[in-house]
Design goal:
By secondary structure, this protein is mostly helical. The protein is about 50% helix and about 0% strand. It has a single domain, classed as ACP-like (Non-ribosomal Peptide Synthetase Peptidyl Carrier Protein, Chain A, Orthogonal Bundle), CATH 1.10.1200. About 25% of the residues are buried.
Amino acid sequence: MPAETHTTREPVSPEEVLAIVRGHLAEILEIAEDSIARESRFAEDLEADSLALIELVEALEEDLGERTVGFSVDDEDLADLRTVGDAVDYVVLRLGAASA
């Protein structure tokens, strides 16, 4: 089903976004999900390189694109996402903009 035909379902809460980000990161980085905190820094704490972050973005766009029309992450915004919390806040903000 093309993304253009999807409609927004229930709003996704920040807690749900955190769970989604943690799940994808754990899979990508092959680490335990409970070792990923909102305060975790991608490079310093999780040893996530730029390729891992791109994989995370692709997974989020695929997962959340099924829930909300128009969800995407702008490439130029990636440099500003230094922690898991930054990513969660960004996604929540983008989801709010997509549903408005």
